[in-house]
Amino acid sequence: MEPAALAAALADRLHRAGVPAGPDRAARFARVLALLPPADASRLYWAARLAFVADRAQLPAFERVFAAVFGGASDPADTRGDPTAPPPVRPVRRSPAVTSRVEDTAAAPPAAGLRHGVPDAPGGPEPAREAVLAAAAPDERLRHTAFAELTPDEVAAARRLARGLALATPPRRTRRARPSRRTGDRVDLRRSLRRAQRTAGDPVRLARRRRRTRPRRLVLLCDVSASMEPYTRLFLTLLHGAVVDARAEAFVFATQLTRLTRALRGRDPDAALRRAAATAPDWAGGTRLGESLRRFVTDHGRRGTARGAVVVIVSDGWEGADPRLVGEQMARLRRLAHRVVWVNPRSAAAGFAPLVGGMAAALPYCDAVVSGHTVAALAQVAAAVRDDGGGTR
Amino acid sequence: MPDPSAGPRDIPARAGAEAEVRDRVPDVETLSAALDAAGYLADPGLATALFLAVRLPQPLLLEGEPGVGKTEAAKALARVLDTPLVRLQCYEGIDAAEALYEWNYARQLLGIRLAESRGAPVTEEALFGPDYLLRRPLLAALEHPGPRPAVLLLDELDRADDDFEAFTFELLAESAVTVPELGTIRATHPPVVVLTSNRTRDLHDALKRRCLYHWIDYPPPERTVQIVRRRVPGSAQPLAVQAAAAVARIRTLELEKPPGIAEAIDWVAALTLLGVTRLDPAAAEATLGAVLKDRADQELARRAGLAGLVGAAASGGAP
Q1: Does domain A98-169+216-386 match CATH 1.25.10.10?
Q2: Most buried of A174, A236, A286, B112 (most Cβ within 10 A)?
Q3: What is the mean pLDDT of residues B172-180?
Q4: A224-251, pLDDT tens digit by residue?
């Protein structure tokens, strides 16, 4: 078969399987084949893999397509490294329950006044935002009723408000510096020298640089198991808002952990939620809180996603297995993160006390526990995220 | 001098590597053998990736856990090609001044003073000319005079931020950089670029699109033994086999810093230095710091039982 046709056909199959393989990759594959005539199946495998795969996450899909197209001529396991290493986890797809619910048709744009970029002065715009939130929900019932008890229309309104809630993290100083007029601890040599030319080479007025501040990273972990069912769509809207506005990382978990950041990008909240529902296979399943936390810290947090970040965990703390695992993993997470905020919708119920289970095990490691169960309580979540007191690192 | 093999300006320079490089690296097997001779054992996938990086040519992005040999691969490639390795260690906040070039301000100020004392006029062109330019790694790699292209290693690119990544696009795509004062500098021998990343964050898609991507796995125990014996001359074969198996078992624990090849080499070197020929729980306890570099990890390993990890007989293992 002619290399160009083969490259195009393989690129097409890969693209349909979810590996982004555009014409540039197909052209690259054709060049690679010209350079490396595939004498055997192993060489063909490596030629195709180096041309098409751009990330480790694409490997399982690539290997499926390759085995299907070339009839299992090469066993990928031969070319993988350590045979005793555990294989990558492949999620089992089950039909998500979310898409069968009533869709929110009126995806009206959120009130313009609610959204601004990340504020420079953390304390400033807070009262203004509170006022706008209050004004936008004239119905007292909407503001103070738990999400579980709202009618679908009110859910839609609450979602719009949640979408507009701007989560802003405290700033941190970075190592980059930018020119500044007067303040600044470092001298900007380049600009000083240019100015010196005006004064015959004497650097009379020194230009200064100041270290830039950036907001800390925000990571959200949301429990989507059956016990959190009434709150799921609302908190997912919050996640979507955070991903789009605050460049946060978003994960959901029930029986396993799924990273949703990519699926939630994009302005349209409903399309984002549909993509999210397609990605996470264990919607409304059982709860494995400790195991999911462990997966997060090992696969993502430890690598740097949670380092120095503000981590928000949305869960009722229900754990099906041993709660000690929750405590251990929360200890690991607390060492990595700047601040840990726990949002527990059950904590607002009368007589709630975190005595048993996952919530009790996690409590010592949380900097703040808020309820987040009504529209008014969501503002508390934003306040807890913004607050810098008591954080470490 | 313009590169004769480069096509018209608007077609990217992927016309193939130069004749010298083609002779040195005619096929994957030759490259594998050459890497072996240079002290680096590469599996077929990595050898193919390095071959394509050199011959297409295209930048190569190596990802993998810390300690699997990403940096070593670039060093070995430079030895094979017999060219200098230009290394840029990336960190958060690295900018063009440290990566590409910087003006020698001290010398410029002195130059102004000298001209003043002589009463000669000082012009801006004189001040911002090539004499006052400090060439940092990226520029040095581009301006390498040959006869073969240099190997440019951008180490731990994920530690740098988005601004720096955007800055490397032009370099990767065109093997050229634009200096405002000096114009566009094109490479006469476009360097072979190797990028490494520890996956602490996702690299930009536009960057990945310009590169070949290869994920380096931990090698199987047999290969670890070969690597260890190569890098620690004087180590005993049974010790190396035991250590490799132990490292593989240790990796199955829930560690903060799983040991890589570098740690396996360190461990066997430490054991060999102490004169240990067979690995037992006592020796493992004494040298645990060579393989596990985190206190919590060491505690975990002890709780899991050093005897079991080391593979000693079940009787009388460490508590």
Answers
A1: no
A2: A236
A3: 83
A4: 888 888 788 788 888 888 888 888 889 9
> Which DSSP letter does residue B276 get?
-
A167 HSE (CA, 13 A, CB side): 31
Query: Picking from B4-13, B51-60, B218-227, which range would have the lowest pLDDT averaged per residue?
Result: B4-13
Residue among A35, A80, A85 minimizing CB distance to B52? A35
**Sequence-ordered list of residues with C-beta below 8 angstroms from that of B233, at least 6 positions apart, any chain:** none
For residue range A296-338, what is the model confidence (pLDDT) as tens digits?
Answer: 988 887 777 888 889 999 988 887 778 888 888 998 899 888 8
Chain B nearest-CA residue for A21: B209
Ordered by start, the domain boundaries in chain A are: 3-79, 98-169+216-386, 173-214
- pLDDT, tens digit (0-9, with 9 covering 90-100), for A244-282: 888 888 998 888 888 888 778 777 777 777 777 777 766
Element (H, E) at A312: strand A310-314
C-alpha distances in angstroms, A340 versus A146, A174, A345, A381?
Answer: 24, 21, 16, 12
CB within 8 Å: B109 and A193: yes
Of A111-115, A123-127, B62-66, which gets the smallest average pLDDT?
Answer: A111-115
User: Do residue A175 and residue B103 have CB atoms under 8 angstroms apart?
Assistant: no
Looking at residue A147, its pLDDT comes to 67
**A207 burial type by CB count under 10 A (0-12 exposed, 13-18 middle, 19+ buried):** buried
Q: Are strands A186-187 and A218-223 parallel, antiparallel or unpaired?
A: unpaired
DSSP structure string for A336-387: H-SEEEEE-GGGGSTT----SHHHHHHGGG-SEEE---SHHHHHHHHHHHH-
The residues that bridge with A213 in the sheet, in sequence order, are A173
Sign of CA dihedral B298, B304, B307, B312: negative
Task: Say if B215 is an interface residue toward chain A (CB within 8 Å).
Answer: yes
pTM, to two decimals: 0.69
Residues of B109-132 as b/e, b for ≥16 C-beta within 10 angstroms? Answer: bebbeebeeeeeebeeeebbeeeb
Per-residue model confidence (pLDDT) at position B312? 65
What the block records as the tokens of B223 is: 């290969």
Q: What pLDDT is stored for residue B226 in this prediction? A: 92
Lowest mean pLDDT among A100-104, A380-384, B124-128, B175-179: A100-104
Helices (H), A18-105: 23-35, 41-52, 59-69, 76-79
> Any CB–CB contact under 8 A between B45 and chain A?
yes
* CA–CA separation, A323 and A331 (whole Å): 13
Size of interface A-B (CB pairs under 8 A): 110
Residue A393 confidence (pLDDT)? 45
Using CA coordinates, name the residue in chain B closest to A262.
B202
Q: Assign B216 to helix, strand or coil.
A: strand
Q: Dig out the tokens for B269 from the structure.
A: 């070197």
Q: Are B80 and B214 in contact (CB under 8 A)?
A: no
